[in-house]
Amino acid sequence: MSGRAVFRGLLVIAFALLVQMTVVLDVRVAGASPNVMFLLPIAAGVVAGPVEGAAVGFAAGIAADLLTPTPLGLSALVGTLVGFGVGAMSGSLVREVRGLPTLVALGASAVAVMLYAVLGAVLGESQFLHVDLAAVVTVVAVANALLAGPTVRLMRWALTPPAERSSAGGRR
Amino acid sequence: MARVARPRRSRRTLSTLVVLVLLSVTIITLDDTGHARFFTSGVKSLASDVYSPLRRGVNGVLDPIGRFFAGAVDYGSLERENQKLQDQILTLELRKSTDAAERRQLAQLQRLLATNKLPSVASLSMVAAEVTAQNVSNFAATVSVDKGTDQGVRLGDPVVGPGGLVGEVVTVTHQTATVRLLTDGKSVIGVSFGHQEEATLQGFGAGHALQIDYVPSTAAVARGELIVTSGLQGAALPPGIPVAEVTSVRSVVGAADKQVWARPVADLDGLSYVEVVQWSGSS
After folding, report:
1. How far apart are CA A169 and CA B141, in angstroms?
2. What would be the CATH architecture of the domain defined by B126-283?
3. What's residue A70's pLDDT?
């Protein structure tokens, strides 16, 4: 990743964190609120591949962990694994086909929430399994699927060099 | 050429993953270790100090928009809340006539507290705080408040709201604090009921009933009974704060303990202002 991509990536993470901690927290459906911080590594993985997906997942996870009363590093671990997984599995097909990132965001967000709950329980936070996991998984996955389009565009702006971005725009 | 580059790139990809995973695991371990936890909570506190003014500023601008969307999504619950408030008004109107009797009852309770020499919460210093965020994570029942160490809030301070105990301060920065609610899965507090029977009250997550453990099968406890903090020697909370109301009691044949469930007396879902009791410094 170039210095420019790192700077823009951090800018996107800071913006997403602000949105998460202000507007998104007020939206509660069935007792659960969306989590856009899990969407960032998914979008980065789709746009730029596994290394960038893992790096964005780590940074976004640490940023989220610093402001929540949950174990520091847990979101970073989940973000790293999910970003890497999405980047490794999404080939050029996901990047080119319109609508496919939405489905990837839906599935990967659900996996991220479940992974977070299970890893948390393994690390001694057994209360993570007492929450209404079905509601949390559904709310986070659906919200992230709806927000996948703009987030992928934002990540493309942050991580893709201008030359590649304009050629990708041309293909669409 | 591409055939040579691919394994090298693949190795770099895998090594990035391994490094980041190891780094995450190291941070988790440090956060869970006694001495290092002091450092990680310091970093969290610093991050919160830097971020809080930004969040307050954005909240000031975006709150009306957020509330609009929340209202649109949660219209059903708003209707239920409206109905609940109307019911409360009716109940209060019915109670007006019994106000004098209640005042007498209150005076009796105050005398009882004085007789037992229990330190009353009212005699302790309190810091009024506004709730700035609720449940910042789907996996923890917490609220954030706008008062911190600069205003005298300390780690472990009990927090009370309208009706009774809300929870205790689990992280504190210069200007903010995070309060773990009674309903959080990590919340365990010492309580008492009836004729000074002692038990522990445990949370099971937001929206779930509270469980009262270690209630002997011989103990007299009934539905509707008020549970208060026990305040045993060295307890984290002062005694006598109303905590919960018993909602169900079940006796199992042959079991040493009763299964008792309760609900918080404070409305934890609708918190706007709370009082932080400056207790940890006085204990």
Report:
1. 44
2. Beta Barrel (2.40)
3. 85
